[in-house]
Amino acid sequence: MPSYRRSVIPASADAQGLPLVAIVGRPNVGKSTLFNRLTKTRRSIVGDEPGITRDRIYGEYEWAGRRFRVVDTGGIVPDDPELIPAAIFDQARVALDEADALVMVVDVRTELASPDYDLVRLLTRSRKPVFLAVNKVEGDAMELVAENFRQLGIKEVYPISSEHGLGIGELLDAVADALPKEKFSEPAEEEVEEEAAAEESDEDDEKVHRTHGEYEQHETSIAIIGRPNVGKSTLLNALTGTSRAIVSPIAGTTRDAVDEVVEFEGSTLRFVDTAGIRRKGKTHLMAEKLSVVMARRHLEAADVALLVIDATEGVTASDATIGGYAHESGRSVIIIVNKWDAVTTGRTDGKPHADREIFEKQLRNVLKYLSYAPVIFLSAQKGTNLGSVLREVMTVAAERRKRVTTGQMNKFLKNVDFQRAPVPMAKRIRIFYMTQAAVAPPTFVLFTDRDIKLHFAFERFLENQIRAAFGFEGTPVWFKVKARNADKKDE
Length: 491
Prior knowledge:
The protein is of the alpha/beta class and 491 residues long. It is 35% helix and 19% strand.
């Protein structure tokens, strides 16, 4: 079986019209490995534990000059009465309904069982092209074993190795031929040549003239973060008007990051629901540990973080730790107090109704380093106050990309009374001038008389003065110190 090369295109909001291929199968047969290889990503968590993938994970890639979307589904066990498997099956059914072609993955090393036949009957009833990918086939002996799976009744059988990329080319050729030609998006030859020429001529100019964070913003990425079971998936579903993420009372239900695009007031917002982050000592399963790592990665790739806090439990040390991750990585932050309705109306635990001002005061006391982050009280389950989230996301996304000119900054410096800064005399410095070196997050370079680290009290004082003058709502502000004497030595 020959290996293959793939050309990947970043997933985009305009990809909805492309043909969709659904990867389905029982748990632990290698669906996520195939998905990751096709999309050349690590979007889906891969491991030996069955049932790792639960939600629908979408990607996009190109094969033989044609683009199409692919969706990874959780392991399907028809008629399983358990809560999570039943929810996974519901998610997979949505993917089956959307898809133009279906790829059923089986493990060549396992015996056929009744769930396999049940799944085949389900797929064939869809009247869509069905392809059988017999996975983990490595060597001629395994290829002969793969022939035994023809008894499932699927005509198109392809032995593959998702891990090593073997045999996948033949599978994709057959899938591409079966998909409706009118759905393929193929750019005109003239457009391709023009784009290539433009990229080649502009590449050097962009490297020279654009600083970090100032590239054209096509969409804003928002990571929904928080402890397990605080309502992150419910919030994603409510904001996007979908059922993209499985919601259950079982902590740790979400493992892969699930994303969905929303168009709001002419802007594209990509919301990413991440797995609940907990301390290392609290994670035992390999899938849980990987999901926490992936959640941190998606946070660091986002523009804005929605830190979700459970109003019924109050602000915890874990909330503070997770908020710290967002703050230290330079993300803009919006604090979402979810389940607010549960503590203000109809309480059944005998406790008095919560007071918003008191709750926010306690929250600010625990999350002192997030003093710049706006707070929104809502109920994701009931859909209250969701519009405020979208509007606030737009605001803080613009604030993190705001630039202050050097002239404005120098004028600002003249009006600041630095004698009021609560800093020991030995730690005081003189600022000759200051300039904004970058955006996302806003980063300022201070040219000073001494090359020392800013005292935390002085840094906080200066940050407060900058925010009072220029805003920067919802985003951290970073400082760098450069001594003027050191600058002259470099010259």
